[in-house]
Design a protein that fits this description.
The protein is an alpha+beta fold and about 160 residues long. Helices cover about 30% and strands about 30% of the residues. The protein has one domain: RutC-like (60s Ribosomal Protein L30, Chain: A, 2-Layer Sandwich), CATH 3.30.1330.40.
Length: about 160
Amino acid sequence: MAGTFERNLARLGISLPATASPSANYVPARKVGSQLYISGQVPSEGGKDKYTGKLGSDFSVEEGQAAARLCAINILAQVKRALDGNLERVVGVVRLGGFINAVPDFKDHPKVLNGASDLMVEVFGEAGRHARAAVGCSSLPRNVPVEVDAIFEIG
């Protein structure tokens, strides 16, 4: 029987994808004590980048939020894999870090990252509330518009 978090994903119509393999010398997830660190995830789907370009020129805030939400879905897939398929081991979301590939005068970085933050609360409820940073940058790998990393408390 699926737990609460899995039911929340199903209610949202989200099926977690297969996890992507690292593209360099790092691991996608690392457990340290009661914390689980998830490496930065990009808005890829089916092994391909779904979004490429910059916020403020190629994408609206709403499109950036959709890209950030896809990053968060990929984060959850990595969490599930790292926890041997058991999302119910998540005690809470500690922190999200968002990197927003944007034109120099773009100012809505926090609004873009809301796409990831909102999903964490939709899936984990109050345990999904977290600290975060939304940072603008001039480029990201493969010209994706958003990359998000995360720290979870696990039991």
